[in-house]
């Protein structure tokens, strides 16, 4: 189970994930361990003629926060799933709730992968594809609540 964190001093954001399941503690920016650890700075919007630089800097920060929250949600679903599985009956029958936890987990993981794929498409300027994938990911995420 990973611990997620966001540090901010009002101007600069840093995102971390501490995961001791990998042997040694690992701290990384956001969810991608290949991204070098950098600080995300918000420019002072009162110092520019338009709010555009501030909005442009805010978008990746919001995306990191959303990704961290969704990743934490998936981690919590894993914890509840494992708890339900551990509390199965002594004769090996799974609890009634286990199927629902598995479906919720599958939906949340599908949403997380979809949102990340949509961001990859957006970065390569495939905006229509990105929007379609993000819409499908949102539907996967919503599906968990209709169980």
Notable characteristics:
3-stranded antiparallel beta sheet, mainly alpha, 3 helices, 54% helix, 147 residues, elongated
Summarize the structure.
This protein has 147 residues and is mostly helical.
How is this structure best described in words?
With 147 residues, this protein is mostly helical. The chain has one domain (3-146). It is 54% helix and 10% strand. A three-stranded antiparallel sheet has the order 1-2-3, covered by helices on one side. A hairpin with a 3-residue loop joins strand 1 and strand 2 (12-18). Helix 1 (52-86) packs antiparallel against helix 2 (97-123) and helix 2 (97-123) runs antiparallel to helix 3. The longest helix has 35 residues, at 52-86. The relative contact order is 0.10. The mean pLDDT is 78.
